[in-house]
Amino acid sequence: MQKQLFTALLYGWIVVFSLILLSSIILALLFRFTAFDENSLSWIALTIGFITLFIGGFIAGAKGKMKGWIIGGLIGLGFTLFTFLVQYLGYQHGFSMEQTLTHLGYMVAAVIGSVIGVNIFGAHNK
């Protein structure tokens, strides 16, 4: 069971970080080569973040097949911890209140995705 949980978390984190990296590259290119301004791209980035964490939670929940709340919470917490460490260690800034609320929303999105993934692909559906 522990190995299944770890495998599910690993899959979820790989999906989340891969999609975030890909979307960051696309958004950077849009910002550079189009007339989008920073305000409009920030809303797009926020939406992409919610969708990405939902997808990562969904895949982790589908792989874990149980304990969707825990798996989704750990997916969101891992992403938030990574973001905080990069920001704090790299730029010497902690989270603002706005960022804290945003990351709480990211965690909720991952939990919802994971619960849905468990309920669709869980062990009771075999």
Textual characterization of the structure:
- By secondary structure, this protein is an all-alpha fold.
- The protein has one domain.
- 86% of the residues lie in helices and 0% in strands.
- It is built from 4 helices and no strands.
- α1 crosses α3, α2 crosses α3 and α3 runs antiparallel to α4.
- The chain is globular.
- The mean pLDDT is 91.
Keywords:
about 130 residues; mainly alpha; about 85% helix; about 0% strand; DUF3792_TM; transmembrane helix
Give a summary of the structure in a few sentences.
This protein is mainly alpha-helical and 126 residues long.
- Helix content percent band: over 70%
Largest sheet: none
Number of strands: 0
* Global Rg: 16 Å
SSE string, helix = H, strand = E?
HHHH
Head-to-tail CA distance between termini: 18 Å
List the helices and strands and how they pair.
Layout: H1 2-33, H2 38-64, H3 68-91, H4 97-121
Helix pairs in contact: 1-2, 1-3, 2-3, 2-4, 3-4
